[in-house]
């Protein structure tokens, strides 16, 4: 596996965001909205024999399914395919390698935290997990609560572990979400938290307005992602109380 770079931002110490398919597709929905709102350019893509033989068509143009976009001081990694467990370790390592090659200020992962009573929650809460105390303090200072107990599994666990080994600042933001359905509301909450953390001004109203159409468009990716999560027993863990498993 390798990351093929097409362009590079001139900025020093950028932030590397990841919005990969996970519980509730929170990261995927958030990343696609951020890319659109900031008019981000494609910077790189992931190439690997381990990935399924798939290319994506957008307005007649061929795209690789896992891509990196950039704008100003932010790169964001997104995927239009479910990430299989055998690909996760390589992808995690490549993302951290890429971040280090850019002298990134931090890696920020966007994900979901399934809660059984999501239908009763009007505005999903966002929690934080970090590799370093300093970055966790930054999150706490803007009102994001740390997740004190539990397990992290899947791609986020692998990125956190790799960052911990290499002393790379990394922050995982988790919004309360549905277990088996795409959750644009949770994605909106996580973008609002990111706005505060990075001093951005990304409007979430368009995202909330198209919530229903997004749920329909992303059904197949959600189905495949749920199947993948089941293979690593993640969906079962997510059914536990929210302060126990992530």
**Overall number of strands:** 11
Question: From the helix content, strand content and strand pairing, which structural class follows?
Answer: alpha/beta
CATH class: Alpha Beta
Assign the CATH architecture: 3-Layer(aba) Sandwich
Are there runs of 5+ residues with pLDDT below 50, and where?
A: 234-246
Percent range of helical residues: 25-40%
| CATH homology superfamily name | PAC-like subunit
What does it look like?
With 246 residues, the chain is α/β, with parallel strands linked by helices. The chain has a single domain (2-238), classed as PAC-like subunit (Rossmann fold, 3-Layer(aba) Sandwich). The protein has helices at 26-37, 88-101, 133-141, 155-166, 184-198, 205-209, 211-217, 219-231, 234-238; strands at residues 2-5, 15-19, 41-47, 56-58, 61-63, 66-71, 74-79, 106-114, 126-130, 145-146, 170-177. The strands form two sheets. The chain has a nine-stranded mixed sheet, sandwiched between helices. Helix 1 crosses helix 5 (184-198) and helix 2 packs across helix 4. The longest helix is centred in the last third of the chain and has 15 residues, at 184-198. The chain is globular, with a radius of gyration of 16 Å. It starts with a strand and ends in an 8-residue tail after the last helix. 45% of the residues are buried. Mean pLDDT is 89; it is low at 234-246.
């Amino acid at each position: 596996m390798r990351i093929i770079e097409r362009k590079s931002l001139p900025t020093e110490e950028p932030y590397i965001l990841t919005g990969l398919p996970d519980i509730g597709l929170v990261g995927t929905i958030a990343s696609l909205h951020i890319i659109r709102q900031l008019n981000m350019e494609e910077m790189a893509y992931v190439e690997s024999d381990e990935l399924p033989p798939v290319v994506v068509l957008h307005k007649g143009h061929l795209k690789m399914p896992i891509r990196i976009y950039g704008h100003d001081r932010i790169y964001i990694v997104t995927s239009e395919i479910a990430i299989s467990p055998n690909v996760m370790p390589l992808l995690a390592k490549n993302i951290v390698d890429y971040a280090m090659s850019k002298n990134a200020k931090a890696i920020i992962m966007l994900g979901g935290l399934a809660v059984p009573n999501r239908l009763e929650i009007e505005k999903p809460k966002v929690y934080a997990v970090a590799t370093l105390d300093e970055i966790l303090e930054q999150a706490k200072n803007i009102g994001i609560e740390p997740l004190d107990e539990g397990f992290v599994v899947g791609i986020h666990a692998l990125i956190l572990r790799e960052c911990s080994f290499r002393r790379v600042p990394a922050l995982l933001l988790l919004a309360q979400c549905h277990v088996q359905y795409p959750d644009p509301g949770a994605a909106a909450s996580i973008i609002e938290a990111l706005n505060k953390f990075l001093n951005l001004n990304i409007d979430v109203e368009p995202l909330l307005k198209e919530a229903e159409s997004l749920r329909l468009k992303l059904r197949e990716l959600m189905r495949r992602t749920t199947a993948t999560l089941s293979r690593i027993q993640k969906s079962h863990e997510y059914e536990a109380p929210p302060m126990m498993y992530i």
